[in-house]
Amino acid sequence: MSHAHDLRISMARTLDGIAVLAVEGELNLTTSTRLSDTALTVAGDQHPHLILDLSRVPFCDSSGLNALIVLYRRLKAGHGSLTLAAVPDRLTRLLTHTGVNRLIPTHPTTDSALTTHPHATSGTDSHTNASRHSL
What's the rounded Cα separation, in Å, for the pair 50 and 27? Predict the structure, then answer.
């Protein structure tokens, strides 16, 4: 990443109305709006259930945390869902200390998030990691 303010979001997989978005970069005041806007656009494009792969998120401040909470609430209001996967230790501690881990489900990997998701039924991807594209 060339700048601390960069945030990259790519569609990693889709399955049964579930989209896995890979997020890379810091979630902060500068980037949190981009995460929310991109995720809500994907949700509006036939993928109301989102899994965010946060394995490449080295930092999250209160703005990033708020963006996750607001995104969760907006998806839920639209009969969708938000799940977090591959959450780094530092962010896991933040989610735990703030109680957000009781609101937004987390999984150790995107595969475990997909296999246990209540809306995943077909078992076949329409996009795979090989066809990942930036949003």
Answer: 17
